[in-house]
């Protein structure tokens, strides 16, 4: 015994040298190797005692029974093509259940005859459990596992009307009949598989342990089936890990498929790093990882959103010469889309197609949804068109993502077309689809169509949620119909819907736009009573209302209140306040606000600067306007089209045509367009400076952009063309002047 203990200690030390003690996975793998080593050595030392299978001792027939059995056996052997029911008709009255087993003993070498005779008997009465087990043994010996499985399944699917067979009774008879009726151990594998497929896992474990007592270890394929069904049927990865360890201790030599199941189990419980470590240890254990092994770990990392680790495994997989499959690529593409790397996801998608893997609607939908969410709607449409060219039918998610994208880009007609197409192919839109369209119609001012969709979704049994109602409330408020919005909110309350911050903000913004500031302030207090804290949009809406009514002190108080509550103002908030200061003529306060923002590290945008520049231009203080512009550029804020239009008009008013023309050229180079007012300011400025060539170029450009001119300009350029003898152009300008300036009074509108 001391020698045996020393042997175990030496084996333990040898195994432990291969692993780092701090890793949970290493400890698991170490124990796994040590257990395998232990079992092997226990077997070699004959420390496990096994029992022999019992001898089958059937009841001996009497002389009369023996003659009958011999007669029947001889008759059916010689029957050849004659149906058994015909040749056995004379024996039916004398045939008893015991005779079945005795006849089977005489014909067991003729497998087809055994099945025919057994079927003949089963039509007339229920065979005993012993007889059933005998036929199963004969089937396995004849290498007909399918028939053996069917016979096993009949114990549950077609139970006897007179006798119910328990697992223990079946196993007892199976062991009892084993030695003399087949001696093929695979019969226990089949029984194990049937128990596993039936979901009777406890009985399957009992069978596994029982067989160990007879020195039999079930096949690794059967054990793999057991592991996989544990995952699929009861979704218990931890149980699969436990069984893996216990079966290893019993002597099961796991293969690649086994490790793949274990890796999948580890990934399911979130232990992806342990699964990865096991993948790296597979070759050391004698099992070569395959594409499924790597794909499972890749999918695990994808679910954990660990992009770098996933890419590392993918690289290792390719170095091993293994090609990723559709499952692998779908996981990678989904992760990249979920992390915003949709462009990279499409590159992976193209590589997938290059390798000859045909994409399905799932991967196309993933990319369409990904591109839509990052705002690259053109790419989403491109993927949709490609999907259709491949004759792949878009699913519900693809249509919904495209409809949402069209709505975000204010392409309501295209969204509605897709919506109708979705209905035509039999897909049913849900609340989100309808709400997306309703919100889009409300934002474009078509509240009537929005309510039509609302009624339609109610008619088909969909229940509008708080988001749906909020979109409708917002649409009504933007139209100035605050009373109807209040009625809709009352309807929401009656239906038990809890108003959220967006609902309150929509109504509050509507009240502010209609000038009902007092009601808006009361609504904000109601929000707080209802447990909903006002956000930056709430405060900004009220500040805008105060600014437009000239109540700058109250607007400024709201800003201080926001900061006191820890609500971070946005650029829109400061722009609202800046516009208020400028419109009230409080330019010094506006500049103080700008400096305060810069001092706090809050970066203004072009709109912030534009408000100040516009007011200085109105006051004809171009030096101050230019100073603001230089400060804007110094802070790294890029001027927009409005910036240039404001400055150009200001310089034209101050007759600084050289500066105005320079800004015009810079503006055009950057791709910005002049407005109607800017064109007129430049043209009039050049005419006053007698720069007729520049004026004429701008006048022609303005008309080519679809702008109408003021009647004075039409008359000036008509006179110019008449003096030059260009009668056709003179008449054309006169016609335009009459049509646009004298008849419809549509000066400045585009054609």
Provide mean pLDDT, rounded: 83
Instruction: State the total count of DSSP E strands.
Output: 0
Relative strand content: under 5%
Largest sheet: none
Structural notes for this entry:
By secondary structure, the protein is mostly helical. Among the domains are: 2-44; 54-127; 341-425; 430-525, Alpha Horseshoe (Serine Threonine Protein Phosphatase 5, Tetratricopeptide repeat), CATH 1.25.40.10. Helices cover 72% and strands 0% of the residues. It is built from 41 helices and no strands. α24 (431-443) packs antiparallel against α25 (447-459). The longest helix has 21 residues, at 24-44. The chain is elongated, with a radius of gyration of 43 Å.
Topology:
Layout: H1 2-16, H2 24-44, H3 63-77, H4 84-87, H5 97-107, H6 111-124, H7 129-141, H8 145-157, H9 167-181, H10 186-197, H11 201-213, H12 220-234, H13 237-250, H14 256-268, H15 272-281, H16 291-303, H17 307-319, H18 326-338, H19 342-354, H20 361-373, H21 377-389, H22 396-408, H23 412-424, H24 431-443, H25 447-459, H26 466-478, H27 482-494, H28 501-513, H29 517-529, H30 536-548, H31 552-565, H32 571-583, H33 587-599, H34 606-618, H35 622-634, H36 641-653, H37 657-669, H38 676-688, H39 692-704, H40 711-723, H41 727-743
Helix pairs in contact: 1-2, 2-13, 2-15, 3-5, 7-8, 7-9, 8-10, 10-11, 10-12, 12-13, 12-14, 13-14, 14-15, 14-16, 15-16, 16-17, 16-18, 18-19, 18-20, 19-20, 20-21, 20-22, 21-22, 22-23, 22-24, 23-24, 24-25, 24-26, 25-26, 26-27, 26-28, 27-28, 28-29, 28-30, 29-30, 30-31, 30-32, 31-32, 32-33, 32-34, ...
């Amino acid at each position: 015994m001391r020698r045996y203990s020393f042997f175990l200690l030496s084996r333990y030390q040898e195994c432990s040298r291969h692993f780092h003690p701090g890793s949970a996975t290493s400890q698991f793998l170490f124990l796994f190797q040590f257990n395998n080593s232990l079992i092997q050595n226990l077997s070699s030392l004959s420390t496990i005692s096994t029992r022999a299978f019992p001898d089958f001792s059937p009841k001996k027939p009497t002389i009369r029974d023996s003659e009958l059995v011999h007669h029947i056996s001889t008759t059916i052997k010689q029957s050849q093509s004659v149906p058994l029911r015909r040749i056995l008709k004379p024996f039916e009255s004398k045939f008893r259940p015991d005779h079945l087993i005795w006849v089977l003993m005489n014909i067991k070498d003729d497998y087809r005859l055994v099945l025919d005779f057994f079927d003949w008997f089963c039509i007339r009465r229920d065979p005993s459990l012993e007889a059933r087990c005998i036929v199963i043994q004969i089937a396995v010996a004849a290498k007909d596992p399918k028939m053996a499985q069917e016979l096993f399944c009949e114990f549950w699917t077609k139970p006897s009307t007179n006798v119910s067979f328990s697992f223990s009774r079946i196993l007892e008879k199976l062991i009892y009949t084993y030695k003399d009726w087949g001696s093929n151990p695979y019969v226990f594998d089949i029984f194990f598989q049937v128990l596993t497929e039936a979901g009777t896992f406890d009985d399957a474990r009992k069978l596994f342990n029982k067989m160990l007592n007879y020195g039999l270890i079930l096949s690794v394929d059967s054990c793999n089936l057991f592991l996989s069904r544990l995952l699929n049927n009861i979704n218990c990865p931890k149980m699969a890990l436990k069984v893996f360890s216990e079966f290893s201790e019993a002597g099961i030599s796991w293969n690649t498929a086994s490790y793949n199941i274990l890796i999948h189990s580890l990934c399911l419980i979130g232990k992806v790093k342990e699964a990865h470590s096991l993948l790296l240890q597979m070759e050391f254990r004698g099992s070569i990882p395959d594409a499924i092994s790597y794909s499972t770990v890749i999918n695990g990392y994808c679910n954990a959103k660990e992009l770098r680790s996933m890419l590392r495994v993918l690289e290792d997989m390719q170095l091993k010469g293994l090609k990723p499959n559709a499952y692998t690529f779908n996981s990678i593409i989904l992760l990249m889309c979920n992390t915003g790397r949709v462009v990279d996801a499409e590159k992976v998608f193209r590589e997938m197609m290059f390798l000859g893997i045909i994409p399905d609607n799932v991967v196309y939908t993933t990319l369409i949804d990904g591109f839509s969410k990052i705002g690259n709607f053109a790419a989403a449409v491109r993927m949709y068109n490609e999907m259709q060219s491949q004759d792949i039918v878009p699913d519900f998610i693809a249509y919904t993502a495209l409809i949402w994208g069209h709505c975000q880009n204010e392409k309501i007609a295209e969204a509605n077309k897709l919506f109708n197409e979705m209905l035509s192919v039999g897909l049913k839109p849900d609340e989100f689809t309808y709400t997306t369209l309703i919100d889009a119609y409300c934002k474009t001012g078509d509240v009537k169509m929005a309510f039509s969709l609302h009624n339609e979704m109610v008619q088909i049994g969909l229940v509008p949620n708080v988001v749906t109602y909020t979109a409708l409330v917002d649409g009504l408020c933007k139209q100035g119909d605050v009373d109807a919005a209040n009625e809709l909110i009352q309807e929401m309350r009656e239906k038990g819907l809890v108003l959220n911050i967006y609902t309150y903000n929509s109504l509050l913004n509507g009240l502010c736009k209609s000038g009902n500031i007092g009601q808006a302030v009361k609504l904000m207090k109601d929000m707080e009573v209802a447990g909903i804290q006002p956000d930056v949009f709430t405060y900004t809406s009220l500040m805008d209302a105060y600014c437009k009514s000239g109540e700058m002190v109250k607007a400024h108080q709201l800003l201080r209140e926001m900061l006191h509550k820890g609500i971070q103002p946005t650029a829109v908030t400061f722009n609202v306040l800046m516009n208020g200061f400028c419109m009230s003529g409080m330019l010094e306060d506006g500049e103080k606000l700008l400096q305060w923002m810069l001092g706090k590290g809050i970066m203004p945008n072009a709109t912030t600067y534009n408000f100040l520049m516009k007011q200085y231009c109105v006051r004809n203080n171009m030096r101050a306007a230019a100073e603001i512009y230089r400060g804007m550029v110094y802070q790294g804020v890029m001027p927009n089209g409005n910036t240039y239009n404001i400055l150009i008009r200001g310089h034209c008013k101050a007759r600084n045509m050289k500066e105005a023309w320079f800004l015009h050229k810079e503006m055009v180079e950057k791709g910005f367009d002049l407005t109607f007012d800017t064109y007129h300011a430049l043209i009039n400025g050049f005419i006053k400076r007698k720069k007729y060539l520049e004026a004429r170029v701008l006048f022609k450009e303005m008309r080519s952009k679809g702008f109408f001119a003021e009647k004075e300009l039409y008359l000036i350029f008509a006179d110019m063309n008449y003096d030059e003898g260009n009668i056709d152009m003179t008449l054309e300008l006169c016609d335009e002047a009459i049509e646009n300036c004298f008849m419809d009074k549509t000066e400045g509108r585009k054609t």
